[in-house]
DNA sequence: GCTAGATTGTACCCGTCAGTACAATCCGTC
DNA sequence: GACGGATTGTACTGACGGGTACAATCTAGC
């Protein structure tokens, strides 16, 4: 709504930034849905208010479009994550909230997940070329490191926790939950993906992560 | 070695089963490497001791080849898993061993992982069509269920453990570790994928799973 | 109101790639 | 040693799809 208004501020016939965004949005959907070689430039164009000609004008070639679509997808989710403020919570609550949030956030951004899957199929070639994205992710780790540090100082987290390894564990569950839903549902039924099933998996994941972070109870 | 001998049992020039296996192996590599539309039938043929003509003769079309390649990949890994005998171990040891094994097994079968990734990109369409594969997976769950039951009876596992949810958690870590290695390494460095890093992640995963399974210590 | 540069539409080119026609060859069996 | 079905090689086709040529139109600034 507000976006549409902002996009129309210039003229009706020429609006470069609006066109770029329009194309990028279409590209993310199409690439996420069909993969790099599965996506057709003509199909992306068809999802657009403009034409194939414009895609080549603004993005050079298919690879250029793909790279920018990937950046756009990353940018969107990391932006959403940045809104989460955990600094004021005690470490245990902060970690709990972070895990639950990540689980839900991934779940509500399937296009992003699929872009990352595709990027992994292609050995992260496009990602390597974009240092923009790396910065966004360093920030995510720093947030986690800060929680770990506070937890250690308060004596409730074990010493020497590795925030990267912890992030790996959180991502694994949250990512797999979306990325492998199709095959998992076919093989084991879709109960796990009902509301109740998801709630269970989320709390199970929170529990697993907390167990890694917490200091062992004395035997 | 033994395979090559068996394959040559018929004649040198005609050997249908050998040709089929040869094609399937090439197809798994190529599909795993490049995805469904990324893989080219001509390239698969080039990896083969025979010709493109034979692919169409034995498999009908590209989709038929893909489906059978997927089945072959599943068959190979589940076969490897079936060798693991846990019935004689106490539940805690059995679960520990199962998790560690799964972690390593996935890691040493990257082609399988990539086939599953690709299948997920395509909404598991080929997988749904093959009931062969479903059976293989039910067996995996049954093995886990048996461990859970014994653990509950002995009073060391919590009651009402869901083997499917547990399997989900084990798979998530083991799968993600391989599937997302490229992007994860680009974003966070590849220390996690060194021998030391992998050992750490494996034991961290074992710990997380055990924490889910074990009965809570009385407060 | 004209010029320069930025944007856009139409129509096309040309390589790639799934799939095939057709004929040849093999091999077990009689 | 000839028949018939199973297997294989060669050479092609036809559509699809990434990318472009060329000209038209827009917009800002003078």
UniProtKB/TrEMBL annotation, chains A, B:
One term of GO molecular function: DNA binding
PROSITE patterns attached to this UniProt entry: HTH_TETR_2 (PS50977)
InterPro entries: Homeodomain-like_sf (IPR009057), HTH-type_TetR-like_transc_reg (IPR050109), HTH_TetR (IPR001647), NicS_C (IPR041474), Tet_transcr_reg_TetR-rel_C_sf (IPR036271)
Highest taxon of the lineage: Bacteria
Keyword terms of this UniProt record: DNA-binding
One Pfam match: TetR_N
DNA-binding region: 40-59
Residues in HTH tetR-type domain copies: 17-77
Protein name, as recorded: Transcriptional regulator, TetR family
Lineage, opening ranks: Bacteria, Pseudomonadati, Pseudomonadota, Alphaproteobacteria, Rhodobacterales
């Amino acid at each position: 709504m507000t976006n549409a208004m902002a996009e129309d501020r210039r003229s009706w016939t020429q609006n470069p930034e609006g066109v770029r965004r329009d194309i990028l949005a279409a590209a993310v959907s199409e690439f996420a849905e069909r993969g790099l070689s599965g996506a057709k430039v003509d199909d992306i164009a068809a999802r657009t208010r403009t034409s194939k000609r414009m895609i080549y004008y603004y993005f050079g070639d298919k690879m250029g479009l793909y790279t920018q679509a990937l950046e756009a997808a990353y940018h969107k989710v990391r932006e959403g994550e940045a809104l989460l403020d955990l600094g004021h919570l005690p470490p245990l609550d902060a970690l709990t909230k972070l895990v639950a949030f990540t689980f839900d956030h991934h779940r509500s951004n399937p296009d992003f997940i699929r872009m990352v899957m595709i990027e992994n199929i292609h050995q992260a070639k496009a990602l390597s070329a974009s240092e923009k994205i790396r910065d966004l992710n360093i920030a995510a780790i720093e947030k986690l490191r800060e929680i770990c540090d506070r937890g250690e100082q308060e004596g409730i987290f074990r010493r020497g926790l590795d925030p990267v390894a912890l992030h790996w564990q959180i991502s694994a569950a949250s990512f797999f939950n979306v990325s492998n839903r199709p095959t998992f549902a076919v093989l084991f039924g879709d109960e796990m993906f009902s509301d109740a099933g998801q709630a269970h998996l989320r709390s199970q994941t929170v529990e697993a992560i907390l167990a890694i972070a917490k200091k062992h109870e004395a035997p």
